[in-house]
Amino acid sequence: MGDDNKPVAVDTEYHLNSRGWSNPEEEATVISNSFSSDLTELSQLKREQMHNNTRFKVMQSNIEEPKLNLLEKESVIRMETLKVEAEHKRLNLDTSGMQFKAELLRQ
Fold first, then answer.
1. Tens of pLDDT along 20-76?
2. pTM (whole model) above 0.70
3. Helix (H) or strand (E) run with residue 86 in it
4. 30: Cβ contacts below 8 Å, ≥ 6 apart
5. 21: which of 5, 54, 62, 66 lies 20 to 30 Å off by Cα?
């Protein structure tokens, strides 16, 4: 009879994966290449996002400048309106004072 208790040598250099049989060195290379490819893709996406952010900020600035100009013009117009209203009230007071004086003189 044979001795069934003897250790059996196992070849660990190759194993089965989803692509078939390969060795650990090949797997490490594939994983490294995949990681490198993913890293390159992420770097490219990051560059694109930074470029888009820069474009957005430029566009936003191009919108803000005319908006600020309009706000400045609006404030100038409001100041002029307040000046005119103040002058109008002053003239009305002067007119009503003169009417009062004229009524006093008539009496």
1. 656 667 767 767 778 888 889 999 999 999 999 999 999 999 999 999 999 999 999
2. no
3. helix 24-106
4. 22
5. 5
